[in-house]
């Protein structure tokens, strides 16, 4: 908000698209580059033109020297036919003057009608460049060159040759160069901007394709992004696809859990309804009711746990299995304190997995609680990593599992010890979590003599 003279007015922030931002930034940089290039080239051309003019003036000095002669009286005489015709053309822009002891001894015909005050004497064999202002606002680049002329009698005469050229020639040449320079740089700049726009449009097309695919997903036309994207966008699109697959898997688990729950509730509800209709013994009816309500509660807990399982996703943060195992064992040691259980853990330092921490607590908690419940005095936990997989082995020294039961012990509703409390859903939850993470579980006889559960899960 901006306050102006007591009035409050909103400021609208313009939100440029990515392509427009890049195009504006490139246009500004290109404009600045071309502008600085034009200034640099113009200064370089101007310096080169001035240097070239100074070289010409020096050549004109040598031209005048070849045309000069000393007569018998020691006077300097110039031939009428000079090698440079501009010296003979009035107002040609090229002027010459020879002085001696501050007096003009010769002046080129081109200087007729102009008062040229060029008396500077740099000394013998020296040269000096100056800019001289003359009448009419004209500026001349002047070269004063000192010479010593020795006569036949051995007398030395000091002369100063001044050669001056109109600087408007350089200005006109520089102005013409500037016009050509801006014309070509302007045309080149427009062509570069057009090429840059086409390059940006081509380069940013994958981003537009991503937006288009996301819109298609929103409208239900597609379920995932396609895989034809540049390498720089692969990680982004793969993560988006992983997120979409993860959400779709969760929705499917919710639907399956609700369907299974509805189907599972039919039996206890039917039993309860039948007892209400046919059994008039209040005590028996009460006992049956509690039994069926416990069963319903167990089924609801199981399906809720099954539905809340996150499942495999590369977007989940890494979880340390060692830390979770130690926390669970610490709690179970307190619960089963009377059994005096000795536990041994062999966990690699890099045994971690990208998973939901709650899922790992539920998975490892059920396996370890099962081991603590059925062991005699020992529980052994091993966690190792190999490549992209993590292997977890939970062993105990209990009675073990009969061979005939190994194939179905981890299925929902199956228990070996029917005298224990519960409905046998702990290992079923373990099986569902492992399935959601695309892992596997199997049983075998452990080295301690009891059951050995081996779980393999992908790290990512």
UniProtKB/TrEMBL annotation:
<feature type="domain" description="Histidine kinase">
    <location>
        <begin position="260"/>
        <end position="460"/>
    </location>
</feature>
<dbReference type="InterPro" id="IPR003660">
    <property type="entry name" value="HAMP_dom"/>
</dbReference>
<keyword id="KW-0597">Phosphoprotein</keyword>
<keyword id="KW-1133">Transmembrane helix</keyword>
<feature type="transmembrane region" description="Helical">
    <location>
        <begin position="22"/>
        <end position="45"/>
    </location>
</feature>
<dbReference type="Pfam" id="PF02518">
    <property type="entry name" value="HATPase_c"/>
</dbReference>
<keyword id="KW-0902">Two-component regulatory system</keyword>
<feature type="transmembrane region" description="Helical">
    <location>
        <begin position="181"/>
        <end position="200"/>
    </location>
</feature>
<dbReference type="InterPro" id="IPR004358">
    <property type="entry name" value="Sig_transdc_His_kin-like_C"/>
</dbReference>
<dbReference type="InterPro" id="IPR003594">
    <property type="entry name" value="HATPase_dom"/>
</dbReference>
<dbReference type="InterPro" id="IPR036890">
    <property type="entry name" value="HATPase_C_sf"/>
</dbReference>
<dbReference type="InterPro" id="IPR005467">
    <property type="entry name" value="His_kinase_dom"/>
</dbReference>
<keyword id="KW-0812">Transmembrane</keyword>
<keyword id="KW-0808">Transferase</keyword>
<dbReference type="GO" id="GO:0016301">
    <property type="term" value="F:kinase activity"/>
</dbReference>
<dbReference type="InterPro" id="IPR003661">
    <property type="entry name" value="HisK_dim/P_dom"/>
</dbReference>
<keyword id="KW-0418">Kinase</keyword>
<protein>
    <recommendedName>
        <fullName>histidine kinase</fullName>
        <ecNumber>2.7.13.3</ecNumber>
    </recommendedName>
</protein>
<keyword id="KW-0472">Membrane</keyword>
<dbReference type="InterPro" id="IPR050428">
    <property type="entry name" value="TCS_sensor_his_kinase"/>
</dbReference>
<feature type="domain" description="HAMP">
    <location>
        <begin position="201"/>
        <end position="252"/>
    </location>
</feature>
């Amino acid at each position: 908000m901006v306050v102006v003279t007591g009035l409050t007015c909103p400021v609208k922030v313009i939100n440029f698209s990515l392509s427009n931002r890049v195009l504006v930034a490139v246009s500004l940089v290109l404009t600045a580059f071309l502008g600085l290039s034009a200034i640099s080239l113009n200064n370089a051309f101007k310096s080169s033109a001035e240097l070239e003019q100074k070289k010409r003036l020096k050549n004109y000095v040598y031209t005048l020297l070849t045309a000069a002669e000393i007569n018998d009286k020691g006077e300097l005489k110039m031939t009428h036919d000079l090698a440079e015709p501009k010296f003979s053309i009035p107002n040609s822009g090229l002027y010459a003057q020879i002085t001696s002891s501050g007096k003009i001894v010769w002046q080129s015909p081109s200087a007729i009608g102009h008062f040229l005050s060029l008396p500077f004497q740099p000394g013998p064999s020296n040269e000096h460049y100056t800019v001289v202002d003359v009448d009419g606002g004209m500026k001349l680049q002047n070269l004063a060159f000192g010479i010593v002329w020795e006569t036949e009698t051995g007398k030395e005469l000091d002369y100063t040759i001044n050669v001056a050229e109109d600087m408007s020639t350089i200005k006109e040449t520089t102005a013409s160069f500037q016009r050509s320079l801006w014309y070509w740089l302007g045309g080149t700049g427009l062509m570069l901007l057009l090429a840059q726009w086409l390059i940006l449009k081509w380069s940013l097309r994958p981003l537009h394709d991503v937006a288009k695919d996301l819109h298609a997903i929103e409208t239900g036309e597609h379920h995932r992004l396609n895989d034809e994207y540049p390498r720089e966008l692969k990680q982004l699109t793969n993560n988006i696809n992983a997120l979409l697959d993860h959400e779709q898997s969760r929705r499917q688990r919710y639907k399956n859990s609700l369907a299974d729950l509805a189907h599972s509730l039919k039996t206890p509800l039917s039993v309860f309804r039948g007892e209400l209709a046919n059994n008039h013994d209040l005590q028996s009816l009460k006992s049956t009711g509690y039994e069926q309500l416990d069963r319903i509660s167990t089924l609801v807990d199981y399906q809720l746990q099954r539905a809340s399982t996150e499942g495999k996703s590369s977007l989940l943060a890494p979880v340390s299995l060692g830390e979770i195992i130690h926390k669970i064992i610490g709690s179970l040691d307190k619960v089963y304190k009377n059994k005096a259980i000795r536990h041994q853990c062999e966990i690699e330092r890099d045994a971690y997995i990208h998973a939901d921490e709650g899922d790992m607590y539920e998975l490892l908690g059920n396996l370890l609680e099962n081991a603590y419940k059925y062991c005699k005095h020992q529980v052994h936990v091993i966690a190792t990593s190999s490549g992209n997989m993590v292997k977890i082995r939970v062993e105990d020294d209990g009675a073990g599992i009969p061979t005939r039961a190994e194939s179905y012990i981890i299925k929902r509703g199956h228990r070996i010890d029917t005298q224990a409390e519960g409905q046998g859903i702990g290992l079923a939850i373990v099986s569902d979590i492992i399935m959601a993470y695309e892992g596997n579980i199997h049983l075998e006889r452990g080295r301690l003599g009891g059951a050995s559960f081996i779980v393999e899960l992908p790290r990512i």
